[in-house]
Amino acid sequence: MRTLLISGASRGIGRAMAERLLRDGHRLSLGLRNPDDLKGSPLDPERAGADRVLLHPYDAAVPSDADAWVQATLEHFGRFDSVIHCAGIFSRVPVVFENGQEEEIQCLFDINVMGPWWLTRAAWPQLAAHGSGRIVVLVSMSGKRTKGRLAAYSTSKFALMGLCQTMRNEGWESGIRVTAICPSWVNTDMAAAVKALPPEQMTQSEDLAALTSQLLEQPNSCVPFELAVNCNLEA
C-alpha cells in the first residue's frame, strides 16, 4: 500500500486515477481547488473513510498551497511516498500572440510547470526518505512534439518534460523514480471539440489509470521514465 498525493483529481484523468488507486488499496491525499467537488463521490472521505482519503484545498498556481498540503498530509497520515501530478490547463495561444495574452502564457507556466515544481520541492524530503518514492507526471505528447499552432501549451509541456528528466536525475540515488505519461488525445472535456477522432477511439482515462496502477507496483529496477500512449499514428 502506498500513500499518495494526487493533484487535479476532481475530474478527468486525475479523478480516474484516484478512483482506481483507491480501489487498489492505497491511501490518497487529494489536492483540489474546491474539495466540495468530490462530495458524495467514491472519493468523499465520508464514503471512503477518513483513514483512506484526505481532501485538501490546493491551487497549483499558488506556491504556498504546496507546502500547506504536504504538511496537512503528514499530519493526517504520518507519511507519504508518492506524488501524481495531474493538475494542468490548456491554451491555444500561438507564436504571434496578441497584446494581453502574455498573462495567459504566464498563467500556463505557473500551473503546468511551476505547480509540479513547487509541489515536488515540498514533497522531496518524504520521497527521498522512503527509498522507493514515486513521481508520476501527466505530461502529454505535446511535451514530445508540436502540432498546429499551440505554441504556449506545447512550450509549457516541453518545459515540464525537462523538469521530469531533471527530477529523475536528482532523485535517482535516493530511490525516487519518475515517470512522464505522454498521451495524445484522451476522451476528456479538453478533447470534446476534436473532430478528427471519435471519443471511443481516443485513449480512455480509465486506461491511463490502469497503467499508473501498474507503475506503482514496479520495483526501483523496473520503472519506465516515459510512457508514450498513442490512440492515433504519430509521425
Describe the structure.
The protein has a seven-stranded parallel β-sheet, sandwiched between helices. Helix 1 crosses helix 6, helix 3 runs parallel beside helix 4 and helix 4 runs parallel beside helix 5. The chain is of the alpha/beta class.
Ordered list of secondary-structure elements with their pairings:
Blueprint: E1 3-7, H1 12-23, E2 27-32, H2 45-48, E3 53-57, H3 63-77, E4 82-85, H4 102-130, E5 134-138, H5 151-171, E6 177-183, H6 205-215, E7 226-229
Mean pLDDT, all residues: 96
Show unreliable segments: none
Query: What gap, in angstroms, lies between the N and C termini?
Result: 39 Å
- Tell me the β content: 15-25%
Q: Tell me the total number of β-strands.
A: 7
Question: Could you give me the name of the CATH homologous superfamily?
Answer: NAD(P)-binding Rossmann-like Domain
Shape: globular
Name of the CATH class = Alpha Beta
Count of all domains: 1
What's the story with the biggest beta sheet?
Answer: 7 strands, parallel
Put simply, the count of helices is 6
Return the CATH topology.
Answer: Rossmann fold
Helix content: 25-40%
What does the radius of gyration come to? 17 Å
Structural class by helix and strand composition: alpha/beta
In CATH terms, what is the architecture?
3-Layer(aba) Sandwich
Write the H/E string, N to C.
EHEHEHEHEHEHE
Q: Please list the strands of the largest sheet in the order they lie side by side.
A: 3-2-1-4-5-6-7
